[in-house]
Amino acid sequence: MNEERYASRVRQALNHGLKDIPPASARRLEAARHLALSRQKQEVPRLALAGQHGHGHFHFSSDNRHLRQVLAVLALLLGMWISFYMDSLTYVSAIEEVDSALLSDDLPPEAFLDNDFFEWLKDDTSAE
């Protein structure tokens, strides 16, 4: 906040003295300003290893918002894929238990063709 106040005071002082500058000098100052801005190097956003800065992670420049968003989406997709994979393993495990229980039982094969038997199985599994 202190820097903003200082910058505001400097700007006011420069604006106050602006009317005392002759028009020819003002044009030369403006041309010099444009020349200086055209020669100013633009910083290229890049990834730097954190070891260069003494941290244990990657350092992103503030201009890499797009890269951050892509990495966030990739992390989200990876998390969703892991979640679906673990859920499918749980589902397959539950089906294996039911199949093993049915196959180890002493029911005749004709019982599996009976529609009432399937209704009984549905009612039995919904009660748990």
TrEMBL record:
Keyword Transmembrane helix: yes
Transmembrane segments: 70-86
Pfam family membership, one: DUF3619
InterPro entries, per the entry: DUF3619
Keywords: Membrane, Transmembrane, Transmembrane helix
Keyword check for Membrane: yes
Protein name: DUF3619 family protein
Upper lineage: Bacteria, Pseudomonadati, Pseudomonadota, Betaproteobacteria, Rhodocyclales
